[in-house]
Amino acid sequence: MNPTLNPATRPLNAPHRRAFPTVHSALTCMAGGWLALTLSAFTAIAPAHAEPAPLQTVPSVDVPRYMGTWHEIAKYPNWFQRKCASSTQATYTLQADGRVQVLNRCKTDKGEWTEAMGAARQIGGPNSPRLKVRFAPEWLSFIPLVWGDYWVIDLDPNYQWVVVSEPKREYLWILSRTPQIPAAIYQDLLGKLHDRGFDLKRIEPSRP
Predict the structure, then answer these.
(1) Which of 62, 171, 148 has the alpha carbon at shortest distance from 102?
(2) Which among 33, 13, 14, 30 is positioned nearest to 22, based on CA atoms?
(3) Where are the domains of the chain?
(4) How many angstroms separate the Cα of 185 from the Cα of each of 48, 70, 161, 178, 182?
(5) Which superfamily does CATH assign the domain made up of 63-205 to?
(6) Cβ–Cβ < 8 Å for 132, 120
(7) In this predicted structure, which of 13-17, 121-125, 132-136, 199-203 has the lowest mean pLDDT?
């Protein structure tokens, strides 16, 4: 502490100075004002960086119509598809018990086919767009962690293309009945995904 500013060390006959407290009070008010303005500005900006709204699905899915082969058009890269170099596709087959058999296949960089067989089940009614999918062995199906979310978030009325994700937006796939999709439709889907909180920089087009 500076002794010249300590009242205990000021000579008794020294003039009583009010300058420092006055300036100090002014600076304090200014600092408080700037802090209030900063907080107000931050509050005004904060909504622009807020978390996106909860992800919504399509109203319903006609499961029998959804069955068949879908070709991957684009995706968020993920670890379990790291061997896929091209021709990635998924084939869904409805089973007698209401579950869906899932066959994912693709070509490696050596041109060889690799496959993964799984199962899916709907969460909710018979037209629910929310499913759980597993690729772990059947005997592990009682463990909740082996089931992953599969949400249909956009779907062509004619079932020619579909967008699949999950609640946290960590995974994303754009699928089509054909190996390629019209550019206009693809760009429209990207625009809608951006509006729904997806990071377009993460999307990787797939090789047919």
Answers:
(1) 148
(2) 30
(3) 3-49, 63-205
(4) 28, 16, 9, 13, 5
(5) Calycin beta-barrel core domain (2.40.128.20)
(6) yes
(7) 13-17
